[in-house]
Design goal:
57% helix; single chain; 88 residues
Length: 88
């Protein structure tokens, strides 16, 4: 057996680890499957592309990043219910 060391973002690693655990597997198994698929297909076994976003989606992302059009956040449940009652 050989060892491969890979640098990855900590958050990405943790999210992937949780998903793999849910699926009943781990990084070692998945990396071995990936490497075998690379050998079998003589390629990267999945499509790699930059997603194309339309103008509406780009604007929605920009608005969300700038806090525009988002609903009000609450730290107080009573305040939230008062606002709901005002709207109704």
């Amino acid at each position: 057996m050989a060892t491969i060391n890979v640098n990855v973002d900590e958050k990405v690693k943790e999210q992937a680890k949780e998903t793999l655990e849910y699926l009943g597997t781990n990084f070692t198994n998945v990396i071995n499957m990936l490497l075998r698929q690379i050998i079998l297909t003589e390629s990267i076994p999945f499509e790699i592309k930059i997603p194309k976003l339309n103008n509406e989606t780009i604007k929605a992302i920009e608005d969300a990043e700038n806090g525009k059009g988002l609903s009000k956040g609450y730290n107080d449940l009573d305040e939230m219910w008062k606002d709901i009652e005002k709207e109704g």
